[in-house]
Write a structure and sequence with these properties.
The chain has helices spanning 2-18, 27-31, 39-44, 46-52, 65-73, 85-97, 136-145, 212-220, and strands at 55-59, 77-82, 104-108, 120-126, 147-158, 165-169, 172-175, 185-188, 204-207, 224-232, 234-235, 244-245, 251-252, 264-271. With 277 residues, it is of the alpha/beta class.
Amino acid sequence: MDEYVATNRRNWDERAARHPDTDFYDVEGFLAGESSLYPLEREEFAPFVERESPTILHLQCHFGLDTLSLARAGANEVVGVDFSSVAIEQARDLAAEAGLGDTAAFVEADVLDLDLDRSFDVVYTSYGVLAWLSDPDAWAATVARHLREGGTFYIVENHPVAGVFENVGDDTAELAHPYFADEPMMFDAQGSYADLDAEFEHTEQYEFAHSLGEIVTALAERGLRIESLHEFPWATWRMYEGMSEDDEGRWWLPDDVSVELPLTFSLQATKRTTGRG
């Protein structure tokens, strides 16, 4: 497992250095006052942040753009965690530039063995996070360990079903990857979701397939009560060729695809007062 983590860290360190300069992340717009949160999070989660002014732990925060948007949305304190030292350095610099250094802090760590020895009102994570986790039970334990009793966990993420397919169009789709898998899948490719044409030195990465049932069960077994689970037929990036983007930054399957696939899901859960963490 150390080999997988080391390979992924090299991959993400290189991409973290490039991503802040891409149009996908629009750092300039953020510094001008815009939120990086998508309409879904602004509808489902940001009102809670504004109303409750919670303390938030943001797992797998990348270079902190969403972390800092949550700080702006009204969080009392936000702590972002990522295993990439480059991403964390970028996040700290961005927090200082945005004038949010007093509200947001960033920690370099692997979320699977994270222990900050404190609890938060909210644990939050979003988009492209689950595929990097070798052990969903350890991840769920981290969530529960850092969530106060009665606290809220919120995740919005690429739907596991979407990762099975390639070449979706004309009412056909190629079954390319397993939905259930015991071993990681190795990919070797240039580019990233934020810059499809980018060229990198470290192109190998390992991803882990986790079913929706596996994720929900891991959280439930750690004492979290599932409050809602929503599924959506759009993505936040060009997941397949031929997808088109709407005015809200959502990517949809081509019009000639008559059968909708679940491409994104959101889940909210509460830590029960009798749960174990």
